[in-house]
Write a structure and sequence with these properties.
By secondary structure, this protein is mostly helical. It has two domains: 1-94, RNA polymerase sigma factor, region 2, helix turn helix motif (Rna Polymerase Sigma Factor, Chain: A, Orthogonal Bundle); 121-189, Arc Repressor Mutant, subunit A, CATH 1.10.10.10. The protein is 72% helix and 0% strand. The chain has helices spanning 9-19, 22-44, 47-63, 75-94, 100-109, 115-133, 137-147, 153-160, 164-181. Belongs to the sigma-70 factor family. ECF subfamily. Keywords: Sigma factor, Transcription, Transcription regulation. InterPro entries: RNA_pol_sigma-70-like, RNA_pol_sigma-70_dom, RNA_pol_sigma70_r2, RNA_pol_sigma70_r4_t2, RNA_pol_sigma_r2, RNA_pol_sigma_r3/r4-like, WH-like_DNA-bd_sf.
Length: 189
């Protein structure tokens, strides 16, 4: 067998997934840590948040290694998406702009217009749009009001003349549908 640094990301991830191989984990960290940190820094513009995000991604990789399903050598793309979703969640929590798509577009229009970012944004928007189209209209409307218009459950309940518990149940159903569709949920919590 060749030395660990000669293995592909897919091979290293398989070792990590199947055997909790710490050398494989360390090699993946060494290969991608700088790239992920730079990505996080570009997205957050904050060194401390970027470091924390990068560490969170590697913790997630270790903790969820048995359940993560990555095909065709797309580990780096998976890690980039994780950084993206985690940074978006942090930024949305600290930002006055709660409209998710407006925030994403603003982030990418401020000098972050490389091809990769546009592809990731396009994929995310398409995944969300596709998942939303497959939801029942009432579930979709309640979810959009909650997550994209930043309305509270009580406001949605009053405006739509439906019980509070129905609002909560519809949002739960929508989140389950997004999870089934494979859309990253971190951006909606």
């Amino acid at each position: 067998m060749s030395s660990i640094d000669k293995l592909t990301d897919s091979q290293l991830f398989q070792l990590l997934k199947e055997n909790a191989d710490q050398q494989a984990y360390a090699e993946l960290y060494n290969r991608h840590n700088v790239l992920l940190y730079r990505r996080a820094l570009r997205l957050t513009s904050d060194e401390e948040h970027a470091r924390d995000l990068t560490q969170d991604v590697y913790m997630h990789l270790w903790e969820k290694r048995k359940t993560i399903d990555i095909h065709d050598g797309k580990l780096l793309a998976y890690l980039y998406r994780l950084i993206f979703h985690k940074s978006t969640r942090i930024t949305l929590k600290t930002s006055n702009d709660h409209n998710y798509f407006d925030h994403l577009k603003a982030t990418f229009s401020e000098g972050h217009n490389d091809t990769e970012n546009r592809i990731l944004l396009q994929e995310l928007e398409e995944s969300i749009a596709s998942a939303l189209q497959k939801m029942k209209p009432k579930v979709r409307d309640v979810f959009i009001q909650s997550r994209f218009e930043d309305k509270s459950h009580s406001v949605i309940s009053q405006e739509n003349n439906i019980p509070y518990n129905t609002v909560r149940d519809n949002i739960r159903k929508a989140l389950q549908r997004l999870k089934i569709m494979g859309v990253g949920l971190r951006c909606f919590f």
